[in-house]
Specification:
With 397 residues, this protein is of the alpha+beta class. It has 3 domains: 2-245, 3-Layer(aba) Sandwich (Peroxisomal Thiolase, Chain A, domain 1); 254-280 and 315-397, no CATH class; 284-311, no CATH class. The chain is 18% helix and 34% strand. It has 7 helices and 22 strands. The protein has helices spanning 28-39, 66-73, 88-96, 158-173, 187-193, 207-214, 267-279; strands at 2-10, 15-16, 19-20, 50-55, 80-85, 102-109, 112-119, 129-137, 144-145, 153-154, 181-183, 220-226, 229-235, 242-245, 281-285, 291-292, 308-312, 316-325, 336-343, 349-354, 367-378, 381-390.
């Protein structure tokens, strides 16, 4: 039996009551990072020794996304990462089989959202909740399919999927009791399988399994489905710690995609900047302690070239000044805003994009937090960095 210690959820600010839409600077890695950081609020250092990342949309198919995921969440580079293609059943399968210290992260693009679940240690400081496998059925009915390099194909036969897909899977499971919540199905379909009125979940893919666990008000059976496969687990009580980063939805901004030549990447520069940029670290002079972002070869404070050490930067700050760009830039949807942010408690200002609010609405003196975003795609490689998320649409806990 796995012991759930904490859950974290994230929903992008863009969307409406029907679902959320990922922003132009978001992908499954940035969504997963937001959920992972939420889940680990208050977790002890070293609580995570293994990460499982489940999604249908891996941004980097060759080379992997593990390093970016670990750096964004703030986990050491020696933590092992498994990247898995899958939906809600795969997430429950990963959780029930997970060893203590495993963080399962799930992310979806349409509808957009992410969730993360931490498997705790027996007798840990928190009160972990047991998660036990009730049954599993793995079958094939590829009503929606996609092969590498091809477009997605949708057979779109609801009756076939209901009667020969989901219906057969649920019959084979032979559940001892009706589930209290179903992940992977729309509201009416889920309600037909549940006892009582189930909670409406904001996503239908991998992250729906985590949203289902987070929605429990009491113990019971949680069912996760995808096409013709299903997994059911029993939870013996509500998860004690659920941290939500779920701002109220607003209408997506109207942006113009600007065609043009592909933005080239320098892999040498990418490698040099990766750790400091994704972990949000400055260089601290070993001689005088002056901070520099990005790290410099020669200290501007004392002129020393003796070296520097990484120093974590604050993730909150205030807008010192800013500008909104309306001129088309190839590869960057416009308009967008840039801000120079005075970080809290340090003598460092950072030039970053503004995210999560319409361009041009951020003013001098506004406060916000720094969040990981995909700032560009260069030579087909996601280039991650940090953006300012103004407090006007902050997180809820």
């Amino acid at each position: 039996m796995a012991l759930l210690a904490a859950l974290g959820t994230y929903l992008p600010p863009w969307g409406d009551a029907r679902g959320r839409t990922a922003g132009p600077d978001e992908d499954t890695v940035t969504l997963g990072v937001a959920a992972g950081r939420a889940a680990l609020q208050g977790a002890a250092p070293g609580a995570v020794r293994h990460v499982v990342f489940v999604t249908h949309e891996l941004p980097l198919l060759v080379g992997g996304n593990g390093a970016a995921l670990l750096a964004g969440i703030g986990l050491p580079p020696d933590v092992s990462v498994v990247e898995q293609i899958g939906g809600a059943p795969a997430v429950l399968d990963a959780l029930v089989a997970a060893a203590p210290g495993t963080l399962v992260v799930a992310a979806d693009i349409a509808p957009a959202g992410a969730g993360a679940a931490l498997v705790g240690e027996p007798g840990g400081g928190a009160d972990p909740v047991g998660l036990e496998l009730v049954g599993r059925v793995v079958r094939s009915l590829p009503v929606r399919s996609r092969q590498p390099g091809s477009v997605e194909r949708d057979y779109s036969d609801p009756r076939l999927q209901r009667e020969r897909g989901l219906g057969v899977a649920v019959d084979l499971l032979d559940l001892p009791e009706k589930p209290v919540v179903v992940a992977g199905l729309a509201g009416k379909q889920a309600a037909a399988l549940c006892s009582g009125t189930p909670p409406v979940l904001p996503t239908l893919g991998a992250s729906a399994a985590v949203f289902a666990l987070a929605a429990l008000t009491d113990g019971g059976v949680v069912l996760a489905t995808e096409q013709a496969s299903a997994t059911a687990v029993r939870v013996d009580a509500p998860v004690p710690a659920v941290h939500r980063d779920e701002p109220e939805p607003v209408a997506p901004p109207r942006l113009v995609d600007n065609p043009g030549p592909e933005i080239a990447i320098s892999l040498a520069a990418y490698e040099r900047a990766f750790e400091a940029k994704l972990r949000w670290e400055a260089g601290k002079c070993d001689s005088c302690g002056t901070l520099a972002l990005p790290p410099r070869h020669r200290c501007l404070g004392c002129g020393s070239e003796a070296g520097w050490s990484p120093a974590p930067l604050p993730r909150t700050g205030e807008v010192y000044t800013g500008v909104t760009i309306h001129i088309p830039v190839p590869g960057l949807p416009t308009p967008y805003s840039l801000a120079i942010v005075q970080l809290d408690g340090v003598d460092v200002r950072a030039l970053v994009k503004v995210t999560g609010v319409p361009a041009g609405t951020t003013e001098i003196g506004d406060r916000g937090r720094m969040v990981l975003r995909c700032v560009a795609i260069r030579s087909g490689v996601p280039d991650y960095g940090y953006a300012l998320y103004p407090d006007t649409r902050g997180a809820t806990a």
